[in-house]
Amino acid sequence: MYILEVQKFYPDGHLLHPEWFGKFDHIGYINKIFNTKKQAAEYYDLHNPNMRKLNINNTWNSDWNPVTYLRYVVREYNGEYLKIQEF
Description:
Blueprint: E1 2-9, H1 13-16, E2 24-29, H2 37-47, E3 70-76
Antiparallel strand pairs: 1-2, 1-3
C-alpha cells in the first residue's frame, strides 16, 4: 500500500538556516491509502491539473508548486500517521 507525503520547498532554506541540509521539509501525509504507486500518482494528477504529472520524470514525486511551495512524494505505507486532509 502507498501514501502521499507532503513536503514544503524552501528555496533559500540553506541561506536562512545553514544548519539545515536540503531544501524540502516534511509536513505530513495525506489521509488516503492507495493500492499501487500508480493510483497515488493518478490521484495527485486528477486534483492538480495545473501541475505536471507526478511521475513525469519517473521519480514518484511532483514538482513543487510555485504558489504553495508544496510537493508530493509517493511513499510505501508503513503505519505512518495520516493527518493531512485529502484533496
